[in-house]
Design goal:
- With about 325 residues, this protein is α/β, with parallel strands linked by helices.
- It has two domains: about 200 residues, NAD(P)-binding Rossmann-like Domain (Rossmann fold, 3-Layer(aba) Sandwich); about 100 residues, UDP-galactose 4-epimerase, domain 1, CATH 3.90.25.10.
- The protein contains ten helices and 13 strands.
- The strands form four sheets. The chain has a seven-stranded parallel sheet, with helices on both faces. A two-stranded parallel ribbon has the order 7-10. Strands 8-13 form a two-stranded parallel ribbon.
- Helix 1 links the parallel strand 1 and strand 2.
Length: about 325
């Protein structure tokens, strides 16, 4: 099949491209390179450095495409409180643009990657797909709004839709010189420079971290199975629900680093306990967690060490400065 991947220079998109190429599909992709590296793109991909919000260009590129995977997004949950315009444009509006271009080209199926931020704060964890979504920051609101408009458009125009919810993915190719997201990558990059990691709040926020290949094994099935059409499916583990403190301690152990983390005030609207149930993915996709947290982090460390530690690049504009803006960003502390 002819498969189009948005965000193909990004962490998830590039791994997905590898998987589709390995199965013999033709892969086309675009990326504006906000959140990825150009050398992430597999050589066999027909690559365009284009923005999803360029509707006319997307309509041109999607000619004769069978499946669209929409992974492109400014997935900056914390930053979205301070740069809501940027995040909305590249989360909600880019989804509308891509769906419209896909429908105009009679694309058969549209697989969109949503976010665990759709759930917000819930009374119980892990989050299940049937929960009422209560997103509590502009990123989560944009993601959930994108889901709703995509569902509406697909129902009207007859395009198949699948909503995947990957969460806290780690692994090689993740952008690690980005000060605004990817906690594990930020910590590894700092430690390789001999610098202490910075932790927001008390570090007792809890998450499950998903090694990228475990997600890809499920995501690649979403283009072809009939039993996933119209479904929302969490993709990722519900084991090893750990604190951010534990994450830092694990990295320090793996890197033989003497840990004395620096604690900063918590970021507004951050969910304390957030993890997703994998039961639906197990039932529909045969999901299995094959990589432990330590195994996944070890592969990340090897990747970043091989490429070399890098200075952090403050590449995105902060639209709102206030007393709540983290000093890590306003004062460039990373």
């Amino acid at each position: 099949m002819k498969i189009f991947i948005t965000g193909v220079a990004g962490f998830l998109g590039s791994h997905l491209a590898d998987a589709m190429l390995a199965e013999g599909h033709e892969v086309i992709g675009c990326d504006n390179l906000i959140g990825g590296y150009r050398d992430n793109v597999p050589a066999e991909v027909d690559f365009y450095e284009s923005d999803c919000n360029d509707f006319e260009k997307m309509k041109e590129l999607l000619k004769n495409v069978d499946i669209v995977y929409h992974t492109a997004c400014t997935a900056y949950e914390g930053l979205s409180v301070f740069s809501p315009k940027l995040v909305a444009e590249n989360t909600y509006l880019n989804s509308v643009s891509m769906a419209s271009a896909a429908i105009a080209n009679n694309v058969k199926r549209f697989v969109t990657c949503s976010s665990m931020a759709r759930y917000g704060t819930q009374e119980i964890v892990p989050f299940t797909e049937n929960m009422i979504c209560k997103p509590q920051d502009p990123y989560g609101i944009s993601k959930f709004s994108a889901e709703n408009v995509l569902r509406n458009l697909c129902e009207i125009h007859g395009m198949e839709l699948v909503i995947a919810v990957p969460h806290n993915i780690i692994g090689p190719r993740q952008k690690y010189d980005d000060p605004f997201r990817n906690v594990a990558s930020i910590m590894i990059n700092l430690m390789l420079q001999g610098r202490q990691p910075i932790i927001y709040g008390d570090g007792m926020q809890k998450r499950c971290f998903s090694f990228v290949q475990d997600d890809i094994d499920c995501l690649k099935k979403l283009a072809f199975q009939d039993n996933v059409v119209g479904e929302v499916i969490n993709i990722g583990p519900d084991e090893e629900f750990v604190t951010i403190n534990h994450l830092a301690e694990t990295l320090a152990k793996l890197m033989d680093f003497e840990l004395h983390p620096i604690y900063m005030p918590g970021r507004p609207q951050e969910v304390k306990l957030a993890t997703c149930s994998a039961d639906k993915a197990r039932r529909l996709l045969g999901y299995q967690t094959k990589y432990t947290l330590e195994q996944g982090l070890s592969k990340m460390i090897d990747y970043i060490r091989e490429r070399g530690a890098k200075p952090f690049i403050y590449h995105l504009p902060i639209e709102i400065y206030s007393e709540k803006t983290p000093k890590t960003w306003s004062e460039h502390l990373f």
